[in-house]
Write a structure and sequence with these properties.
Sulfite Reductase Hemoprotein, domain 1, TIM Barrel, binds iron/sulfur cluster, elongated, 12 helices, eight-stranded parallel β-sheet, alpha/beta
């Protein structure tokens, strides 16, 4: 897939846009008064694969937490600022690597220009982030909402460009999939600033997973999008796991082995759900990073054939299982040895 060629913008050391891999951003959810917990969350997000972390900065003491976070977590940090442009100025002084402003609540030209001049002086970038929730009116359809988001953003960009500030990323997030897709498509046709993709307020785990996968996935497969942030009403590490799955499913990044497993049917005589869960945990603990495709299939009749695109796999009978490689059966083993055999094969190859 051809990726839209945008400018390259940095968040600290992290480069995005212009052909760089699509990046993953996280947002901290712990209240800033719980500093130890906040640092623990940031460490976990880095461990999961976040490449930049955003922190809501609502007042001076929030901005001052940055030094504590940076001591423990070597990632670029972005200050998320709404309403109070002075908070943005303070966050820049504290050393944040990028600043996010919302054109729908910090819009006075002199204030926006002051933040841009300061960001330029400190050599950091800015995300212009429009969220559909910031509009005071309702829209008749997703396209009308998308156009309003792009228009709000375009006006803001003019203000920033007037002070020769160009280190800009843009996000246009609707809480519905279609307005998000339309807004980003329209923007990408007219501008070459990198896009941060997300569907905002996408909902609980299942609903949010579907909306994020469709919204971000549709745009990414069109070549639009340079950094993604998945939003879920769930623990923050799930957002990183889902972001990685989306990028890996589209073949844009490779983070490690992928499991494919069948949905089972009445031919299946084992508890495949439990087996897959157990194997997935063991695989995560084994720290294998090769981008292998591993199949776990519920029967020997159709399993190896159905999983012929897998590198390796197992197909289960009533008491035994067949281990197969590239669609051909290598050996038979007892059911309780399958996970061990597969892990051995993944790590050391099959003999
Ligand atoms: S692999 Fe076998 S058990 Fe699984 S869905 Fe296909 S036919 Fe059914």
């Amino acid at each position: 897939m051809n990726r839209a060629k945008t400018r390259v913008v940095r968040i600290g050391k992290l480069k995005l846009g212009g052909g760089n891999p699509v990046r993953i951003k996280a947002m901290l959810k712990t209240p800033t008064r719980e500093v130890k917990k906040l640092i623990k969350e940031a460490c976990q997000l880095k461990q999961e694969g976040a490449e930049a972390i955003r922190l809501a900065v609502r007042e001076e003491k929030d901005a001052r937490i940055l030094s504590l976070l940076k001591k423990e977590v070597d990632l670029p940090f972005v200050a998320d600022v709404h309403f109070h442009y002075q908070c943005a100025l303070l966050a820049i002084e504290q050393g944040f690597d990028a600043i996010r402003l919302n054109p729908l609540n910090i819009y006075k030209k002199n204030q926006v220009k002051e933040v841009a001049r300061k960001a330029k002086a400190y050599g950091i970038s800015m995300r212009v982030g429009v969220n559909s929730g910031g509009f005071k009116r309702k829209f008749n359809n997703p396209l009308a909402q998308a156009k309003a988001m792009v228009s709000a953003c375009a006006g803001y960009l003019k203000v920033l460009e007037a002070v020769e500030f160009f280190d800009i990323m843009v996000s246009l997030k609707g809480s519905d999939v279609m307005s998000t897709i339309w807004a980003n498509r329209l923007f990408a046709q007219k501008f070459n600033y990198p896009l941060h993709l997300g569907v905002t307020a996408s909902g609980p785990f299942l609903e949010g997973t579907v909306k994020s996968s469709i919204g971000l996935g549709s745009l990414l497969q069109e070549g639009i999008g340079d950094i993604i942030r998945v939003s879920l009403t769930a623990a923050s590490f799930w957002e990183i796991r889902l972001a990685k799955e989306i990028l890996q499913a589209l073949g844009l990044r490779a983070f490690g082995p992928q499991i494919i497993s069948c949905p089972t049917c009445s031919r299946c005589e084992v508890n495949l759900i439990d087996i897959v869960d157990k194997f997935k945990k063991e695989l995560q603990n084994s720290n294998v990073k090769q981008p292998l495709t591993i199949a776990l299939m519920g029967c020997v009749v159709n399993g190896p054939g159905e999983a012929s695109q897998a590198d390796i796999g197992a197909a289960f009978g009533k008491t035994r299982a067949a281990i197969f490689k590239d669609g051909k059966i290598l050996k038979q083993t007892s059911q309780n040895k399958v996970i061990e055999e597969l892990l051995k094969g993944v790590k050391h190859g099959f003999k």
